[in-house]
Every structure is written in C-alpha cells, then in structure tokens.
Design brief:
Elements (H helix, E strand, L loop, with lengths): L6 E4 L5 H12 L4 E6 L11 E4 L5 H10 L5 E4 L14 H12 L1 H16 L4 E5 L12 H22 L4 E6 L18 H13 L4 E3 L2 H8 L12
Parallel strand pairs: 1-2, 1-4, 2-3, 4-5, 5-6, 6-7
Length: about 230
C-alpha cells in the first residue's frame, strides 16, 4: 500500500520505535497519524493525534477502533521485554505478562481494526516482531517465545486478512537502539533505519522485512545443519 494520504494507527508510539514510526509516516505524507499509548500525555511528537490505549484492555481497543474509523494502516508496535530464565520461580508469570502484550495485544488490536481496514479499502497491518522469533539467547526465553507465537499468529492472520484485501507485513529486527535495549552490549540499528526498511517493504507489498544484517543471518541459519535455533 502507499503511505501518502493514508491514516495510520501506531501502538506504543510514545517512545523508541513507535515514535520513529509516527515521525516517518508524517514525513512520507500520511495525512493523519494516531499515536497510541497507555498514557497519551507522554506523546509529544508534533502533528500526531494522541490516543489512550492499553493493548491488554479490550474495552479500550474497542473504543479506539470506533473513534479512529479512517485508519488504513495499523502498526502493532507495542511490546514489553522482561529478561530472565524460563525455569525460574517467576518464569511462568513473566511469560504470561509478555504474551498478554506481545501476542494477545496484536491479536486484539488487529481483530478490532480489521473491519475498519476493510471499510477503507483493505489497507495493511505491520507486526513488529524480532530476530528472537526464531532463536533464543540466554535470558530472553520468555520474550522470544512470545515473539515466536506472534510470528505464527501473524502468518495465520495474513491468510484471513487477505480475503478482505488487507496486507500483513512481519517486521523482524535484531537489537534496536532504544530504551528497551539500553542494558545490552551489542551492535544496534537505529530506529529510523528499521522504520525506513519497514515502510519501504510495505510500499513494495512485501509480506516480511528483515531489518538488518543480523536478522538476515539468523533467518539463513534456520535451514543450516544444525539449525541456528538448536545452537547456543
């Protein structure tokens, strides 16, 4: 789909990658950008329309879809990362919290906005996933499991959305230089570079975008022997 003159809705738009999405969409000619966050007072990007949204709150999702009836591009960006081992005493609770946001959040938002997209010509959805959808690193097990589940969810939703003419693009980045990775010592992409790849891929009608060289290597490793996801 084309971004110029589109109305976009970005979750988790008050910081990091979400804020970069909102800014880039305006720069590329989107006529309106709804910037959603749990506390809309934290959104200070000029030119956007702040929206209160907790993706785990079904009532807020319903209200947002009803209030933003001109949306043709939905970006499921909101996510949380809690490091720690799955086998720890609180590992199950940690996984449940991340599934609530990283898996059920995109499902709830996409289901709420699907009729809106259909009414506006089909449009598109971008799901922000991760290179950790495919591999696990120490301390990232529950986050990776939530993103792996979200990858599978997106593959299924793509088939359902296609029937109404809606595109779904899966965005897989490695580390991005945002607050979420502040404690990580590893090469990081800028939010702006990741967003640029994602929006370019959207306008090329791609189903998947690998945002950086690390993610490209991870994806290639899935068919290696032994596969990357079995190696430490």
């Amino acid at each position: 789909m084309q971004i110029r003159n589109a109305a976009a809705f970005v979750t988790g738009a008050n910081r990091g990658l979400g804020r970069a999405f909102a800014r880039a969409l305006l720069a590329r000619g989107a006529r309106k950008v709804y910037a959603a966050a749990r506390d809309p007072a934290t959104i200070d990007e000029a030119g956007v329309v702040p929206v209160r949204l907790d993706v785990t709150d079904a009532a807020q999702v319903t209200a947002a879809a009803a209030a933003c009836g001109d949306v043709s591009l939905l970006i499921n960006n909101a996510g949380i990362f809690e490091p720690g081992p799955l086998l720890a005493e609180d590992g199950e609770a940690q996984l449940q919290r991340q599934l609530a946001v990283n898996l059920f959040g995109p499902l709830r938002i996409t289901r709420g906005f699907a009729p809106v997209l259909a009414a506006n010509g089909g449009g598109a959805v971008i799901n922000v996933l991760s290179a950790l959808s495919w591999i696990a690193l120490p301390g990232t097990g529950s986050y990776g499991a939530s993103k792996s589940a979200a990858w599978g969810l997106g593959n299924a939703l793509r088939q359902e959305l296609r029937a109404q003419g809606s595109q779904l693009l899966a965005l897989h980045p490695a580390y991005i230089d945002t607050g979420m990775t502040a404690g990580v010592s590893a090469p990081k992409s800028s939010p702006e570079a990741v967003v640029a790849r994602a929006l370019d891929g959207l306008e090329q009608n791609l189903d998947e975008v690998l945002a950086d060289a690390v993610t490209e290597q991870v994806k290639a490793g899935l068919v290696a022997l032994p596969p990357a996801y079995t190696r430490p």
